Amino acid sequence: MTELKMEKQLHGLNVLVTGADGFISSHLCKYLAENGVKVTGLIKRNSTGIFKNIDQIKNKIKIKWGDAQDLSLLTEITKNVDIIFHLAAQSHVGYSIYNPYETVINDVCSTLNILESARKNDVKRIVHAGSSEIYGKPIYVPIDEDHPINPRSPYAAAKASAENLLQSYYYTYDLPIVMSRFFNVYGPKQGLDQAIPKFILQAINNKDITIYGDGSQTRDYTYVSDAVNAYISLGIKPKIIGKVINFGSGKELTIKDLAKQILKLTKSKSKLKFDNKLRSGETPRLLCNPNLAKNLLKWKTTMPLEKGLVNTIEYYQERKELISNLPFML
Ligand SMILES: NC(=O)c1ccc[n+]([C@@H]2O[C@H](COP(=O)([O-])OP(=O)(O)OC[C@H]3O[C@@H](n4cnc5c(N)ncnc54)[C@H](O)[C@@H]3O)[C@@H](O)[C@H]2O)c1
How much is the pTM? Predict the structure, then answer.
């Protein structure tokens, strides 16, 4: 679908984005708000009172402070909503390993509440932010949607459980759900506990880049603007209700090569430092088969990795001091 047609279809819609100050949500909210959508953003209160990622657009969207675990709040704010983009989650694999209860209760209960409130208020579409982590250690690549689900971390198990709930509401209550499975997304504003922002901050501060394992694990990267385009399509395209769709570039990159590319682009003097064991729960290989997204949505990644990395590096160059947060976040 061309940009113009998408903008037309979006104009005037009422949309709820959960976890609106998160990395991907903040880019999604910006796009929606700039294209005539009435956006309500659900944001979990933090004690700093700082609008983490949505400072620039906080006056263009309606902000609701609260927790997606609060069913009565969700029931109130999903009235007259056309689309829910449910992105709120404890989104970090490593954190989930040390905090399984928090992760599972939060991610599963939030999703159940979204479904229940959407059912009560006849929301027209619910889009879920799923993850390729649910595939676990692949038995074949590239990974298509028929690949068995084999979660290796509490985060992945919670995402798989959330999908099961979505599917059950689709079959039981005919709820109009759509399920995405994103491979790794990157770009400005990503949490510092993820590989790309961490490597960039280490590189631009000339600190050693710390890599889990021997760096041979692979990931498939999608720039955040391509992820936003995917979400928009998931929100408005016809004939995708009840479907589950992978999103990725179809190209894999080892973590070691990713780190080397960041070193080159930042002209850094940093060295690579390996700790020689993969974190438990970590998936050794992720490579997406994005054919279904291509066929159903005409979606594919458009941002070349190098350009996406340069954009992200520019963002963190202006925030070099964030390096001081890394020890607390990893
Ligand atoms: N970034 C990726 O590579 C990737 C890949 C696949 C799937 N996903 C999924 O996409 C979504 C967005 O990812 P992200 O990288 O932007 O993560 P993020 O951590 O930056 O954003 C998640 C947001 O949800 C909020 N949140 C968590 N629990 C909440 C609750 N109960 N109520 C309200 N808000 C809550 C957090 O405060 C945070 O702002 C997540 O669901 C994540 O699991 C991300």
Answer: 0.97
